[in-house]
């Protein structure tokens, strides 16, 4: 039989248990009220994404991040020590991109009760703007924390939508000015420099024009117009961010299928070309995907340096030519400086590729085709011979041929093409034909 006092003990235990439940629920409500209060204050103050992240780290001590849909960080908050720790986690690649493909979000994240990180999507209507993430090293996140993060994602969506609306207006105005600059319709150089300064741009320095053009022809594509517009917007945003991160005062804007930037160039010197191409190459690498951007194949052209706004239209034409010819020389995803075009610069001016094809056929004869497997080897032998100025010993070394083997090949080539070893005009013709054959689309 239960002891006389056991009923009282059970009642006390029940009351204590209920009290703990009530206290826990009260703590959850207090926590949710605190989250709502801070988020409302952030909204009313017109807070940016950085402000939102700062507010989140007061609620969830650690690190808060906002990323694009493909993982590029656009806002963050947290101590330097915490940021360094978080960026070293396995969910980030070597460039600092959050590997969103492997991270659970939304409902899946809510079910992870022992995780020290949680992520939710930032959605406005049907538009996915990225991810909002919190990292709390040493503290497991609860379902309630994830619900608070979802509320914060709504604030992030408001901030992003507001920024996009403002940026759209500013971007259109800036793009119109840059377009006028590229075609020489901005008045005097002094007026252009002053107007650019009012937009936060610096045109009063030595510059190169960089053009990044998508390789896909949007006028002839199976993609829907919405998909094309979305891809182009992402392409432009990736380039704008890459340029502004490196040079905040560099003019940059996107147009139908291209992005144009006026990047500063060193003040002359032997290393100017290499420095410019190294800088452009780093931005191209970021946009292509190492930093999570782009997602479209594109080719890039770089002009010669200019020292005056008046010379920008010429530099723009050079950059466009570098894009077009670079794509012919290297295929898609080419990166080409105008000075690197060489003879291709002249060949690209011939509008009828049928004429170029006929020239190749007449000059190379059967070697213009791949009817026999040996023709490709013979073309390579001819190319190296011409590149080494008919230095037989050097050609044999480069091709790993015995001297007599190369002599036999030279004799065979002269039987097919004529006495190119003694006729400089024929050598020039053959060299041009080989270059033309390498061009895409010919």
From TrEMBL:
Residues 188-325 form the CdaR GGDEF-like domain. Residues 378-436 form the PucR C-terminal helix-turn-helix domain. InterPro entries: CdaR-like_regulators, CdaR_GGDEF, PucR_C-HTH_dom, PucR_C-HTH_sf. It comes from the Bacteria. It holds the Pfam family GGDEF_2. PANTHER family: CARBOHYDRATE DIACID REGULATOR, DNA-BINDING TRANSCRIPTIONAL ACTIVATOR ADER. Belongs to the CdaR family. This is Transcriptional regulator. It comes from Knoellia aerolata DSM 18566.
């Amino acid at each position: 039989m239960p002891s006389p006092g056991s009923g009282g003990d059970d009642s006390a235990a029940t009351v204590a248990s209920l009290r703990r439940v009530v206290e826990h629920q009260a703590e959850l409500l207090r926590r949710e009220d605190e989250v709502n209060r801070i988020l409302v204050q952030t909204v009313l103050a017109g807070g940016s994404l950085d402000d939102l992240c700062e507010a989140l780290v007061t609620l969830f001590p650690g690190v808060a991040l906002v990323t694009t849909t493909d993982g590029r960080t656009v806002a963050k908050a947290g101590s330097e020590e915490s940021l360094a720790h978080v960026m070293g986690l396995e969910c980030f690649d070597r460039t600092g991109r959050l590997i969103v493909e492997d991270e659970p979000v939304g409902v899946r994240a809510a079910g992870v009760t022992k995780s020290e990180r949680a992520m939710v999507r930032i959605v406005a209507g049907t538009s996915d703007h990225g991810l909002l993430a919190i990292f709390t090293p040493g503290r497991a996140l609860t379902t309630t924390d994830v619900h608070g993060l979802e509320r914060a994602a709504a604030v992030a969506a408001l901030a992003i939508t507001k920024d996009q609306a403002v940026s759209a207006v500013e971007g259109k105005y800036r793009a119109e000015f840059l377009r006028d600059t590229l075609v020489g319709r901005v008045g005097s150089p002094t007026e252009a420099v002053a107007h650019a300064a009012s937009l936060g741009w610096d045109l009063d320095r030595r510059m190169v024009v960089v053009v990044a053009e998508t390789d896909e022809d949007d006028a002839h594509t199976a993609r829907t117009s919405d998909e094309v517009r979305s891809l182009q917007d992402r392409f432009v945003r990736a380039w704008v961010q890459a340029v502004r991160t490196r040079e905040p005062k560099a003019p940059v804007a996107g147009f139908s299928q291209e992005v144009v930037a006026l990047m500063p160039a060193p003040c002359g010197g032997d290393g100017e070309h290499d420095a410019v191409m190294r800088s452009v190459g780093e931005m191209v690498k970021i946009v292509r995907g190492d930093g999570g951007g782009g997602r479209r194949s594109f080719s890039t052209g770089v002009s010669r340096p200019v020292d005056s706004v008046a010379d920008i239209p010429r530099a723009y034409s050079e950059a466009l030519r570098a894009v077009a010819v670079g794509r012919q020389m290297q295929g898609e995803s080419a990166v080409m400086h105008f000075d690197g075009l060489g003879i291709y610069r002249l060949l690209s001016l011939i509008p009828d590729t049928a004429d170029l094809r006929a020239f190749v056929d007449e000059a190379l004869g059967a070697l213009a085709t791949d009817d026999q497997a040996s023709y490709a080897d013979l073309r390579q032998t001819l190319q190296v011979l011409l590149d080494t100025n008919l230095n037989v010993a050097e050609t044999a070394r480069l091709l790993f041929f015995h001297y007599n083997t190369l002599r036999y090949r030279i004799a065979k080539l002269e039987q097919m093409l004529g006495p190119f070893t003694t006729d400089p005009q024929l050598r020039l013709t053959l060299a041009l034909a080989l270059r033309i054959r390498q061009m895409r689309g010919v």
